[in-house]
Amino acid sequence: MRIGIVSLLHESNTFVSQQTDLSHFEADVLLEGDAVRERFDGSRHELGGFLAALRAAGVEAVPIFSARAVPWGVIASSAWRELLQRIDKGLDRAGKLDGLLVAAHGATVSEPAPDADGQLLAQLRKRLATPTPIVCTLDPHANLSPAMIQATTAIIGYRTNPHVDQLERGLEAADLICRTLRGEIRPVHAAAYPPMAINIECQNTSEQPARWLVERARALQQSPRVLAVTVLLGFPYADVEELGTSIVVVTDDDRELAQQTADGLALELWNRRHAFATLPISMDKAVAEVGKQAGPACLLDVGDNVGGGGHGDSTHLAHALIAGGVSNCLICLVDPESASQAYAAGVGKRLGLSLGGKAAPSSGPPLVAEYEVVSTSDGRFSDSEVRHGGFLHFNQGPTAMVRAVSGLTAVVISRRTPPFSLGQLTSCGADPRQFEGVVAKGVHAPVAAYREVCQRLIRVNTPGVTAADMTSLVFHRRRRPMFPFEKEMTWCPDKPQ
Ligand SMILES: [Zn+2]
Fold first, then answer.
1. Which domain, by its residues, includes 291?
2. Distance 118 CA to ligand 1 centre (A)
């Protein structure tokens, strides 16, 4: 048996005005054929899981294509066409396949296809007609579409946020396709799409209310004939028709049971919807909390969440910390211009810099001051721990740690790199334990790393393209009515609005 492997992962923030092009994929992952195996075999990514499970089952894995870029704006037309063409050519080269494992994101938006994942999966289904199984893994930030369900045999999403179970879901998906091909099971699936979107603040699966939701899904999965229950929390920063939360249930040859189970959990969620719409605390309140405990407090900059498309150069929290009298604080900022100036000046030198606040109007005013260059690095580092996204190696480009008289220390990096690893700071010599306040530009993803060094993690309601309050963003394409935008609406799965 031969099973193909295709992966295309991008979380596209339609509120970011800059588009994602091929160079953004080249900077992260853009691989074909055996290079995919070389990069991901042994990793904690779902592709690592696919490869390991197929090997254990004695099935030939045929890696075809893998692309990933750091979350950013919509994928440009030319890049999208190129990606689809490369996948098509890869399938030509792959020869006859008995099945296909796909690692998609589910919140990918391209200029010509707002439901980009749906288009990709439909193209794959065109090439591999039913009953050839296509099993797809998704990120729980997926905004699921009926086209994605239509084109696939089964969908399995990660169950954790931060995403630390990608390897396990890859193993599970590959096991499912192997059992299908051996004739042991006949997976079918169905989805429910309650008209609601879950606020990013409420999407941490180890905290309530999301923990309740994933525990309910796990309990439902114990029923006989139910093979997998996935909660797709949704990605709030995509102005697409599919925006929202959904439930996917895979059963062994019982579509009605799949639909009933999905509808049932969707209704339970709907009945608790108000618990999923709370907002983080204000900047002033957050700053007032810093210093109330012995060690550092981590302020999570929700509005400038790099892993959700944020520019990573917003200065609002740094200004608030300085204004609030917190003199010993640390922030990482994406600012290639300042990084290069400080890097070139060298350690021990002083220079005037205008830090951050450049990428978008929502980034806030730059931090203008005289800074001393404390250390520099080439920006490359690795993390051996399980981190959000299964990332191991990072390259944030030329990096400089600089300190102002105010006490503000900034690690200034050249390439947008999400704060998934403390290596972002420590590789340049910054020790987060030495600070009172540490700013991390994320919501849940940084937690896996930062909770090791910060006594408190405080999510803060900051402005930006990933603002916590979805209702503050202007949507044109989403379904209407939809919670929490239209708060007073009613819904039940049998009588869709
Ligand atoms: Zn995600």
1. 283-468
2. 17
